[in-house]
Design a protein that fits this description.
The complex is a heterotrimer of chains A (about 260), B (about 220) and C (about 220). With about 260 residues, chain A is of the alpha/beta class. Chain A has nine helices and ten strands. Helices cover about 35% and strands about 25% of the residues of chain A. The N and C termini of chain A lie far apart (about 40 Å). With about 220 residues, chain B is mostly helical. The chains are: A alpha/beta (about 260), B mainly alpha (about 220), C mainly alpha (about 220). Chains A and C meet through β6, α3 and α5 of A and α5 and α6 of C.
């Protein structure tokens, strides 16, 4: 049992809105999962909880067998110690919809600074790792450029390299291609595809672009209103959905 | 602390001078600010340029320098003003420049769409200003005017240096008479603090009054 | 009425006035750096998780912002010696300017910090940056450019506030002008020159701030 991510009856609400509703979900090591669904279905919140950027109200979340979040109804969230949080976060890397590159650092700076400061690599080793990763995503010639001079697709690729530089076991993509021009999606999708080829890397992709889900995932989940309504292999779910809501969603998305 | 009580008459008299000065110069500044601010946002060169010069000049000079100039130099020009008049004119002119900038900024901040709508209804420039622009702009001006008003009240302390017996003047004179600087200054500070808080809360009420009906449902 | 402005007298007193302007300038620079520091302390206090620190910070800021600089200068000048701290007038002036304007600087820090995109913190947390590292390498560098207008204004305002220090006999420009006037009984020239000098100095300062801002912009592009 190589359970990488486990959600056990998790609930979360923001104010009056229920974002996750008695939510249970498991991912094994090496799984590549895409989560699709309408906006507000809780998809992004799911990723933020895994990345420990947000907590939960109820239930239990574990990473690699260890508890990350633990809360029970009526009692407050048991907030993990900073050291524990740090260790948990070391398993996860995240790529954001708006890239969130640091504007005052060059591409190389963005990728190499965390390994240097957080992992303790020497400046030279960190930069060597950064250089290698940027080469891998096809930006070897843009090392000294600032994010402001890079296109959206280039920025996102730097963001992916930046997250991979800390050697996470889980990679989260939060609408990673949604903010890109259609012509730029391909170059980022290509990098994600290469990552998907890595057997041991667990990937969770949240997207509303079906093409991305189809290209990356070996399992697709359809989420709505904080619950998973249907999950299955891409071909099965996308071409022959069982659930009415899934069918309605896919139809609406294909039309748009 | 007994010192404070013993001189309570002087403190109150100083407070009275401060308040009078603040009110009169604030009114002067307000009137001039609107004139200059509207002129600055006008497209006509004849209005725009002089207004800009006026604003930049009074914003760039030190308030105290202006007060001193009015107090010491004007008599040589044959103009004899009372210290109070010097204070009012000096502070009024100085803060009218900052006020004009606020007026201009808020007028410019009124969405273009409103101006377009007014034009479509064939409203003239003056009418547009009166009916559409100013009501909207004035709500935006409130918090900024609040800040300026606090600044004005603090600046009134400068007139103590041109012999007006305001709160600051009284504080200084009591100190030189009794050497009890700590208690005196503490009370003075608290009095100014109190005035500031009163003014701020009144301005907030005024702003709420003006923007009645424009805010959606609940107060977020 | 004729304005009896003697250019030769003006030229004569210029050196004395220039010395005063120099003192004013130095006081403003000193006050500026003190303000940067005080602002950081106040902003830090207000962000603290300990409620009593945050409350202290808020009250201090309220006090510094709502009371006249003149009274604060008097306070430092008259009360400190009673506590055993005897400072020169210029130092007193620098500290007073720094405290008073520090409150504004703290507000500027807060506004710029709050306006950093939330995503930057998400990215920093996801990469496990410590708070210190995040501030030092990521957030503070991003704050420099947006802070320049506010800090520039603070400096210019400080320059224009220096005449207040004359009230505690700091030998700055206004003090010098008054001195000349009192001794020669000619007030027109020194005070007019002084007033124009403030205009000139704030104009030059504004220009320098503008140039600095463009230089900083250039470095990141």
């Amino acid at each position: 049992m190589s359970e990488m991510i486990a959600f056990d009856k998790v609930s979360k609400r923001f104010g009056d809105t229920v974002v996750l509703d008695d939510f249970s979900f498991t991912l094994n090591r090496g799984d590549k999962v895409a989560i699709i669904g309408p906006s507000g279905s809780g998809k992004s919140t799911l990723l933020r909880i895994i990345m420990a950027l947000d907590g939960i109200d109820n239930g239990k979340v574990s990473l690699n067998g260890e508890p990350l979040w633990h809360a029970s109804a009526g009692k407050n969230l048991i907030v993990p110690s900073r050291k524990h949080l740090h260790r948990m976060r070391s398993l996860v890397g995240m790529v954001f919809q708006n890239f969130n590159l640091f504007p005052n650092l060059t591409a190389l700076g963005n990728v190499a600074t965390a390994p240097h400061l957080v992992l303790g690599l020497s400046r030279r080793d960190a930069e060597a790792r950064g250089r290698a990763l940027l080469e891998q995503v096809g930006l070897g010639d843009k090392l000294d450029q600032y994010p402001a001079t890079l296109s959206g697709g280039q920025q996102q690729r730097v963001a992916i390299a930046r997250a991979m530089a800390l050697e996470p076991k889980i990679m989260l993509f939060d609408e990673a291609t949604s903010a890109l021009d259609p012509e730029r999606v391909g170059e980022v999708l290509e990098v994600m595809r290469v990552l998907a080829d890595e057997r041991d890397l667990t990937i969770v992709v949240v997207t509303h672009q079906i093409g991305v889900a189809r290209a990356i995932a070996d399992r697709i989940c359809f989420m709505e209103n904080g619950k998973i309504l249907e999950q299955g292999a891409p071909a099965a779910l996308l071409d022959a959905p069982q659930n009415d809501r899934t069918r309605a969603f896919l139809r609406a998305v294909h039309l748009s | 602390m007994e010192v404070v009580w013993a001189y309570r008459f002087e403190f109150l008299s100083g407070l009275w001078w401060t308040v009078r000065l603040a009110v009169v110069s604030a009114l002067l500044a307000l009137v001039l600010a609107f004139i200059a601010g509207i002129a600055r946002s006008s497209r006509s060169r004849w209005l725009n340029v002089p207004a800009t010069l006026y604003v930049e000049f009074f914003r760039g000079t030190s308030a105290l320098a202006q007060l001193f100039w009015l107090f010491y130099v004007l008599p040589y020009l044959g103009i004899d003003l009372t210290p109070f008049e010097c204070g009012v004119i000096g502070l009024g002119l100085c803060f009218s420049a900052y006020g004009a900038e606020v007026v201009r900024m808020c007028i410019d901040a009124v969405p273009q769409g409103q101006l377009d709508a007014a034009a479509a209804l064939n409203l003239g420039r003056a009418q547009t200003l009166r009916v559409v622009v100013l009501p909207e702009a004035m709500i935006m001006m409130m918090p900024l005017f609040n800040n300026l008003l606090i600044e004005l009240i603090k600046a009134t302390s400068l007139v103590s240096l041109i012999t007006i017996p305001d709160l600051a003047f009284q504080a200084k004179s009591i100190i030189s008479k009794t050497y009890q600087s700590g208690a005196v200054l503490l009370v003075t500070l608290l009095m100014y603090l109190l005035i500031s808080l009163l003014v701020s809360s009144s301005m907030r009420k005024l702003e709420r009054l003006l923007s009645r009906g424009r805010r959606l449902g609940s107060d977020r | 009425m004729t304005l009896d402005f003697s250019w030769s007298f003006a030229a004569q007193i210029s050196p004395a006035l220039a010395r005063g302007a120099g003192v004013a300038f130095i006081a403003a620079i000193g006050g500026f750096f003190v303000a940067l520091l005080v602002g950081a302390v106040l902003a830090g206090l207000q962000r603290s998780k300990r409620w009593w620190l945050a409350l202290t910070g808020r009250w201090l800021m309220e006090l510094l912002r709502s009371t006249p600089l003149l009274i604060q200068v008097y306070f430092l000048f008259f009360v400190l010696p009673g506590w055993g701290i005897v400072l020169e007038p210029v130092t007193t002036g620098v500290v007073a300017l720094g405290l008073y304007h520090g409150a504004y600087v703290a507000e500027a820090y807060r506004a710029v910090l709050d306006n950093l995109p939330a995503g930057q913190w998400d990215a920093a947390h996801s990469l496990r940056f410590s708070r210190y590292h995040a501030y030092r390498y990521l957030m503070l560098p991003q704050m420099v450019l947006p802070l320049t207008p506010a800090l520039g204004n603070t400096f210019i305002t400080m320059l224009k506030d220096t005449p207040i220090l004359a009230a505690v006999s700091v030998p700055e420009l206004m003090f010098a002008a008054n001195d000349v006037g009192a001794q020669s009984f000619r007030y027109v020239e020194p005070i007019t020159l002084a007033a124009l000098a403030y205009l000139f100095m704030s104009g030059v300062a504004a220009l320098v701030v503008w140039l600095l801002r463009n230089w900083i912009k250039g470095r990141y592009q």
